[in-house]
Amino acid sequence: GKARGGSEFFERAERERERMSRENGLNTPATGRAVPFLPGMTYNNPARSRHAKSHVFEFKVGVGRNLTAMATEVDPLERVVTTSAGPRPETEGGDAGGTFQSDVSKQAPFVPSYVGLDGKVLRFLAVMAESVPESLDEGMRERQFAILYYLVDDSMQIIEQRVENSGYVQGVFMRRHRVPRTVSASASDQDDFVSLHDFADTTEMVIYGRVFVLTGCNEFTSEFYRSNGIPLSVRATTAATTQQLWTGGSTHGSSRGSQGGMMTAGGMSAATGGSRAQTGLDTALLKPNQRAGHRRSKFLKFNNKVLRFYAVWDDRKSMFGDKKRYVVNYYLADDAVEVLERYGANEGRDPYPKLVRKSKVPKKFGGLNSLGISADDVSDHEYIRDSDLGVGQYVEIYNRKLFLYDCDEFTRNFYRNVYGVEQPGSCMPAEEHIEYPVQSEPPYTGYGTEEDSIASFYRLVPKPPSFDALKQEELDRIIFRWKAKFDMDKMGHAGPDDSKRRFVVSFFMADSTMAVYEPPVSNSGFVGGKFLERQKIRKHGTGQHESMYLTEEDVLVDLPATVWINGYPMMLLECDRFTLRYRNKGNIASLLSIDSVHEKIRHAVGDGLEGFRGGMAEADAAGAGTIYLDAFVQALDKYDTQLDEDEIMALVQHWDTERNGTVRYGDFVQAVAAA
């Protein structure tokens, strides 16, 4: 046992010595044998570049492999993904201790199957017929599908072609997973699941009891089966035929064939956009890791690049509609749309500037997606793209048709460089004259005041009529009064004693109301008191539903005058002094006779004119022949002249000729003596 152990030790030492000799360049050219591994016989090559330790087991791309016992045969399915170089050469001796006979750099690189088959998808077009028992007109219905077979893990996914107004859920018909042939399939048995051989030499596939009739495939699928020597019954279809049969089936990746530029609704071809070559790419057909890479590449390429359009939405033809302006932002990085409202100065709208937040907007909004279907499962062609936008076009955003009338300079340059389209200038539509419906006020019912009646029309819970409190406080004490009687010439069906009746008509300036009072007269046959309650008086000749009432301009007229009050012709005979003073703006001298005032003073003084003159002369201390107004009034108060306030004011205004507050008493006494 010790001998065997010693021999094994020496064998390992010999192999290590040979390895170091080869690395240091000490092999003998003639014999090919190395220098003995003894002290002083080793040599370190200064030009050495590799300092790794020798090993026979390593990890590459996360997969462990044996360098000396690696399999040399390649699986037939990997022929389409591996390079054309030959397999690795066999190791010397075929054991773990052998060495490679040729340079490792000349070996073909090893590609694992899950790396080489990643992104390789077989695509079949299929049709399924199903009965429609709930419809009397449609007995059978054909539904078109795209069956995707992922080579990397033998999983399948079925996507249904979208048809507008079909009445049933479309899009992802079956999520990606391995499909069993039978219900009792075992995960450990690979033969219990559908494989790529099940699509060979057949035109029908039974998946979960449903029969799918295969109608075609893409060029990559046909080439894959041909290169592997597997017969295929269906024929490859061109890109145009595929697009016609399946609108959502734009191919992606170099292994799935090419597809021509697809014309969009806006009339722009995706193939013409050099910087937007991925416009025809449908991310709904990508795997999650591929979607992440696609989003990352778009973000790095189009970050902070936004197309901006100015739009208007005119909804004035509908009830409570209005014309609003918006800003439509299209983000090139993620194909999201954002709609912002534009507010002008003093528009009086609530601050809600965002109509649609940044998100993908469908071209035709038919409701929310069904439960279990995310936005990534829906084809990109169902959402608004940059090729669908243009100045002078309408874009429908959640059933609102917005008219794009202008865009910014960056947007114009983008469409010019990418699509070769020149966006027109601002094309704001002309304003249309829209007649808004006006709801007229209902007629006055006659119950209560007219203000109370119309308040119930504008509000469910009526509010009291508003009034100007300041005006009412200032004008509350201003009341005009007249002595009046019936105008017998204009009064119809008058009684024999109506000509003897007298009234007091009052007009209140605070609220423009009127009241009529009849003084009681004994044995007249008429009950005195209130003839008319205080209220607003409608003008004579106006209708019941016309809001035209008497104002102070209608009653402050030259006397005598006739005013119609609720159908009665009232002749205004005379007014009180306050009304007279208000009407003549305080000029009492023009309203009274100065001679009559002088006569009153003459009768009150009698023969004492000299004493009357002497009393005024005593007040003239300077002897200028004038006295002040207060002394003038005091001299009049010594005699019983019976002058009222208006007569005294008229007398002062007449004799104060210089308007300096003095009166020439000599001239005044002569006028009184001559009266």
Characterise this structure.
The protein is of the alpha+beta class and 675 residues long. The protein is 22% helix and 21% strand. The chain contains 15 helices and 22 strands. The chain has a six-stranded antiparallel beta sheet, covered by helices on one side. The protein has a six-stranded antiparallel beta sheet with strand order 12-11-10-9-14-13, covered by helices on one side. It has a six-stranded antiparallel beta sheet with strand order 18-17-16-15-20-19. β10 (323-331) and β11 form a beta hairpin. α12 packs antiparallel against α15 (665-674). The longest helix is centred in the first third of the chain and has 23 residues, at 2-24.
Topology diagram in text:
Elements: H1 2-24, E1 57-60, E2 63-66, H2 113-116, E3 121-131, E4 140-150, E5 155-160, E6 172-177, E7 204-207, E8 210-217, H3 219-227, H4 239-245, H5 288-302, E9 306-314, E10 323-331, E11 336-342, E12 354-359, E13 394-397, E14 400-407, H6 409-418, H7 450-458, H8 469-475, E15 479-486, E16 503-508, E17 513-518, E18 529-535, H9 552-555, E19 561-565, E20 568-575, H10 577-583, H11 594-605, H12 609-618, E21 626-628, H13 629-637, H14 645-655, E22 662-664, H15 665-674
Antiparallel strand pairs: 1-2, 3-4, 3-8, 4-5, 5-6, 7-8, 9-10, 9-14, 10-11, 11-12, 13-14, 15-16, 15-20, 16-17, 17-18, 19-20, 21-22
Helix pairs in contact: 12-15
